[in-house]
Design brief:
Layout (H helix, E strand, L loop, with lengths): L3 H31 L3 E2 L11 E7 L8 E10 L20 E5 L7 E4 L8 E6 L11 E6 L1 E7 L2 E5 L1 E5 L6 E8 L4 E4 L2 E4 L2 E8 L1 H29 L8 H18 L10 H28 L11 H9 L9
């Protein structure tokens, strides 16, 4: 076989590997650039009838099953009719109260009258399993009711809820469910819409985690190739390689903790990837130690004989006698 053929194959492999890395790089960067925005219903212009409320998620506490968010009144509706003619924050003519379910702490939020309204922070209680990282999903199903107190009795107000904001590393959507909770009023029972917030990790986070896990898997593959090659006597034993293999073993845990989202110990990636990476690294180190014990007392490992000499030895013929 001409010597140029292996060279061409090697060059193609290198070019293919570089092209694959470039594609992965572009995919991860693009996914990161388009992720993070909170999607859902687009907020319209104030109509003078509905109270408009913006719900802005701030982050996702996956370990605590909580989604911190802020509530901000954009229009007070009938409580602030002049807001339709100016581009400022609403100043309400009477107190606005919100009943918010599935939150930590107090579930009643009050926006006082005759004051510039400020956003109010709260924490929604979500459901999800961080152990299935990076494919974990968190869902909040909350009911928000707006009302004011007139002559000591609550009067319900029309409410429109709009999601907004940007949470890096997450894809968050918010929708309304027509069949929601039931509340009791002086006039009887009344159905209200439920507001559903769903958060799952963005494509960039998932791609980042998969690439990092793939790099983690590559470490024991390299170690096993070196260890098996030396054990078979095709390469000389170098004691310094055992330090390199030990460094690979100790680098596994820092790489594990570098996974985005910090999945807890015992997640599915530990059982499917990390555990076997550590096991394969130890096996490779054991094979290399066996190779060191096998060849270290016999000098350098024997080098393979040329093919021509092997064929002569197999046929039982002796080579030509050397000239005196």
């Amino acid at each position: 076989m001409p010597a140029s053929v292996p060279f061409r194959r090697g060059r193609r492999a290198v070019v293919g590997g570089v092209a694959l890395l470039v594609v992965l790089y572009v995919v991860v960067v693009v996914l990161y650039a388009v992720s993070g925005d909170v999607g859902g219903v687009t907020r319209g212009d104030p109509d003078g009838e509905h109270v408009q409320l913006d719900v802005q998620p701030q982050s996702v506490d996956a370990a605590g099953n909580r989604i911190p968010a802020t509530l901000e009144v954009r229009s007070g509706g009938r409580l602030d009719p002049d807001n339709l003619e100016r581009d400022t924050l609403p100043v309400l003519s009477s107190d606005l109260e919100l009943l918010v379910t599935d939150t930590d702490g107090s579930r009643t939020v009050t926006f006082p009258a005759n004051q510039v309204l400020s956003p109010v922070s709260l924490r929604f209680i979500s459901s999800g399993e961080i152990e299935v990282w990076p494919f974990d999903t968190y869902t909040v199903k909350t009911t928000i009711v707006a009302y004011r107190t007139v002559a000591g009795a609550p009067e319900r107000l029309s409410l429109q809820v709009f999601p907004t904001g940007h949470v890096p590393g997450w894809t968050i959507t918010a929708t309304s469910e027509k069949v929601g909770a039931v509340i009791s009023t002086d006039a009887g029972t009344e159905k209200v819409e439920s507001f559903v917030i769903t958060a799952h990790r963005s494509g960039a986070t998932i791609a980042f985690g998969i690439v990092l896990l793939a790099l983690m898997v590559a470490m024991p593959v390299l170690v096993l190739i070196v260890a098996v090659t030396v054990f078979r006597g095709r390469r000389k034993v170098e004691a310094s390689f055992m330090s390199w293999m030990g460094a690979m073993l100790f680098a596994t845990i820092p790489l594990r903790t570098f996974l985005p989202g910090s999945p807890p110990i015992g997640s599915w990636v530990d059982f499917t990837v990390v555990l076997w990476v550590i096991g394969a690294l130890i096996v490779g180190l054991a094979i290399y130690v066996a190779a060191w014990l096998r060849w270290s007392g016999q000098g350098p490992a024997p080098s393979p004989a040329p093919a021509a000499l092997d064929s002569v030895a197999d046929s039982g013929e002796s080579g030509p006698a050397s000239a005196p």
